[in-house]
């Protein structure tokens, strides 16, 4: 059972025991493609995506397996396109279930069809509601042949799926296109001008009921994106659809929010928001969709999924934090501040200043503390070079003596700014034991970016504070190994074997010893 390791890892991280958290995190991994991953799932439950990305950066995992884990994180972040790109080129069949789900998230019907053509039973990897949505979407997009092929290749209840396909296919709105209604039943070749539309509607009203319904739907879907037609559509066609609510499901999302449908006619706010966000995350970032999301968000109670969607929209640059309705939402919803408990918002240079300013000026100090505290926990393990925005840095400066992790992040930020004098001033504020820990933390961070000379300098500074420590030796070993300095590598390997024999296996020691001997032999021969 892997779950206990995963839960213990998260508990260790909350307690500030980062090394222990990482060790348990690794034990909680399955190391098998396509399996449910307890270590990933536990951290995703708390939206700790930054921590997961940083761990995956550092861990030595098989390439395809790392891509699989990374894709799980991206998908949970609702970055479906990144999730797909991460696994798209991996041919292992164990990734097919994930690929199908991501493509369904993206509403990539053509790519799903391509998988089906390769012999994949696409529908078998989807839940019932998603099976229905996919078949319905294909039929309504006049891709009935595609839907039929996907059904032909499934082992599921084909009879049920064929019944759904046939029911949808024979709906008048699907059966008749705008072109066929216009030419065959209204005897019109060209689209009417705005001033001619009222006269055309009189002829539509003379059609038999099913054709009339189809005509009204197609008129809205066909002309909604042309502002010159809006007045007549809002006056005549929108009320008709509202009086026949069963037709609403055939009206495109953009049309529903471009025209003046009554809010209550579009359904409950949560249903509308789910639909709009699904549309947004599939890649449709139109002004109509984003404007509608801004309008509806304040009408719902935020849950974890909505919070992740808001974060994604902020990072995309498509959420206006200063929209008056959203300002009201962040003031009134007691859970709204959790939107900002997300490191990417403070690391992404395109939005971090705006987010930092917003948090400072729109939340009281006690809420700002709630926002910043968990950010530090994740940032300690992050692999980002970005400097941090002003007010978050102010928080770190005020609290640097309350928690060593706060000092870690402050020093890291200051180091990246190039202010080495201030870095040393911060270090000297600490007692020697904490100075030692801070030096090693900074060395680890620099090593992660392959800045080996600087990492070595920090490790040597730590050695002057405490010359006998297993973690210190480990830092020297890693750095000298990557630098190819076999003499110093052997020196600290011997120290580790002597002082902490349980921390080093005999085989590791023998490998280092052999590498040093080979290096000496090569040097001798070259002379």
User: Which runs of at least 5 residues are low in confidence (pLDDT < 50)?
Assistant: none
What is the approximate shape?
Answer: elongated
Q: Helicity level, as a percent range?
A: 55-70%
Count helical runs.
32
Helix/strand/pairing class, anyone?
mainly alpha
Largest sheet: none
Radius of gyration: 30 Å
Mean pLDDT over all positions: 92
Span of the ends, CA to CA = 57 Å
Strand content: under 5%
Tally the beta strands: 0
Summarize the structure.
The chain is mainly alpha-helical and 527 residues long. The protein is built from 32 helices and no strands.
Describe the structure.
It comes from Salinicoccus hispanicus. By secondary structure, the chain is mostly helical. Among the domains are: 96 residues, no CATH class; 72 residues, no CATH class. It contains 32 helices and no strands. The chain is elongated. It starts with a helix and ends with a helix. The mean pLDDT is 92.
């Amino acid at each position: 059972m892997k779950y206990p390791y995963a839960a213990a890892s998260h508990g260790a991280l909350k307690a500030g025991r980062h090394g222990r958290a990482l060790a348990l995190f690794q034990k909680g991994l399955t190391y098998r493609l396509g399996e449910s991953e307890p270590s990933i799932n536990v951290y995703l439950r708390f939206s700790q995506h930054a921590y997961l990305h940083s761990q995956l950066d550092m861990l030595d995992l098989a390439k395809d397996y790392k891509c699989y884990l990374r894709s799980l994180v991206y998908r949970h972040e609702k970055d479906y396109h990144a999730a797909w790109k991460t696994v798209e080129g991996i041919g292992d069949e164990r990734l097919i279930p994930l690929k199908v789900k991501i493509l369904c998230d993206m509403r990539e019907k053509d790519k799903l069809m391509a998988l089906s053509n390769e012999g994949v039973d696409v529908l078998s990897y989807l839940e019932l509601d998603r099976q229905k949505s996919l078949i319905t979407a294909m039929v309504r997009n006049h891709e009935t042949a595609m839907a039929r092929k996907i059904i032909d290749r499934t082992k599921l209840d084909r009879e049920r799926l064929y019944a759904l396909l046939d029911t949808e296919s024979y709906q008048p709105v699907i059966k008749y296109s705008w072109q066929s209604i216009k030419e065959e039943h209204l005897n019109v070749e060209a689209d009417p001008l705005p001033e001619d539309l009222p006269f055309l509607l009189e002829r539509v009203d003379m059609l038999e009921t099913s054709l009339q319904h189809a005509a009204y739907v197609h008129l809205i879907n066909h002309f909604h994106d042309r502002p010159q037609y809006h007045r007549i559509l809002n006056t005549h066609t929108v009320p008709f659809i509202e009086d026949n609510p069963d037709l609403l499901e055939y009206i495109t999302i953009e049309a529903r929010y471009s025209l003046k449908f009554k809010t209550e006619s579009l359904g409950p706010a949560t249903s509308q928001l789910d639909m709009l966000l699904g549309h947004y995350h599939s890649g449709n970032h139109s002004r109509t969709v984003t404007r509608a999301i801004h309008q509806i968000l304040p009408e719902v109670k935020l849950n974890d999924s909505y919070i992740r969607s808001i974060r994604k929209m902020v990072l995309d640059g498509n959420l206006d934090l200063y929209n008056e309705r959203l300002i009201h939402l962040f003031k009134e919803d007691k859970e709204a501040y959790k939107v900002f408990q997300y490191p990417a918002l403070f690391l992404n240079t395109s939005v971090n200043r705006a987010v930092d300013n917003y948090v400072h000026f729109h939340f009281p100090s006690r809420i700002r503390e709630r926002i910043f505290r968990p950010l530090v926990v994740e940032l300690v393990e992050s692999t980002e070079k970005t400097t941090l925005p002003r007010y978050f840095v102010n928080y770190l400066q005020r609290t640097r003596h309350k928690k060593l992790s706060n000092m870690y992040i402050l020093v890291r930020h200051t180091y990246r700014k190039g202010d080495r004098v201030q870095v040393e001033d911060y270090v000297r504020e600490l007692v020697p034991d904490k100075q030692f820990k801070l030096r090693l933390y900074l060395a680890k961070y620099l090593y992660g970016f392959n800045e080996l000379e600087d990492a070595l300098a920090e490790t040597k500074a730590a050695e002057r504070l405490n010359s006998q420590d297993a973690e210190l030796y480990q830092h020297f070993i890693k750095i000298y190994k990557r630098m190819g300095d076999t003499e110093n590598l052997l020196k600290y390997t011997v120290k580790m074997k002597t002082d902490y024999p349980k921390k080093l296996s005999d085989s590791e020691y023998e490998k280092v010893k052999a590498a040093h001997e080979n290096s000496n032999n090569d040097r001798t021969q070259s002379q």
